[in-house]
Amino acid sequence: MVIRVYIASSSGSTAIKKQQQDVLGFLEANKIEFEEKDIAANEENRKWMRENVPEESRPTSGNPLPPRIFNDSRYLGDYEAFFEARENNAVYAFLGLTAPPGSKEAEALAKQQA
Questions:
Q1: In DSSP terms, which residues pair with 5 in a beta bridge?
Q2: Residue 93, exposed/middle/buried by CB under 10 A (0-12, 13-18, 19+)?
Q3: Angle made by CA atoms 8, 10, 14, in degrees to the nearest 5
Q4: Of 109, 98, 35, nearest in space to 68 by CA
Q5: What CA–CA distance (Å, rounded) separates 61 from 30?
Q6: Which of 45, 77, 82, 100 would bridge with 37, disulfide CB 3.0–4.6 Å?
Q7: Which long-range contacts (CB under 8 A, 24 or more apart) does 9-13 make?
Q8: Stated pTM of the model
Q9: What is the band of 105 on the pLDDT scale with cuts at 50, 70, 90?
């Protein structure tokens, strides 16, 4: 399983830049392996991301904007979904990964199962 984060290296939007940095920074800080896929510099990445974001997750007009997060080819969500998972200490579950022992998420799961 590979976490893939689709970003735009040359986005003119400061909001998109901040969201991308937020996602990538969290993954790096928590030593979660991921691949960064740039849709601005690589047409194949842009095409793949646009084709694989489910219809219900697309904007009403225009194309889906980064960051978009996938586990292999399974769509996980956009920044809002990631942010909500992070706020709920559920990022590992959101990513389809097992929370490491000692993490807030693993401790919360242990309490729920007790």
A1: 36, 69
A2: middle
A3: 85
A4: 35
A5: 35
A6: 45
A7: 9/38, 9/40, 9/41, 10/40, 10/41, 11/40, 11/66, 13/65
A8: 0.91
A9: confident
Question: What was the pLDDT predicted at 24?
Answer: 98
- Retrieve residue 71's tokens: 């586990």
pLDDT, tens digit, for every residue of 29-40? Answer: 999 999 999 999
Q: What does the pLDDT look like over 6-49, one tens digit per residue?
A: 999 998 899 999 999 999 999 999 999 999 999 999 999 999 99
Q: What is the 3-state secondary structure (H, E, C) of the chain?
A: CCEEEEECCCCCCHHHHHHHHHHHHHHHHCCCCEEEEECCCCHHHHHHHHHHCCHHHCCCCCCCCCCEEEECCEEEEEHHHHHHHHHCCCHHHHHCCCCCCCCHHHHHHHHHHC
Pairing of strands 3-7, 34-38: parallel
Structure tokens of 8?
Answer: 């735009």
What pLDDT is stored for residue 96 in this prediction? 95
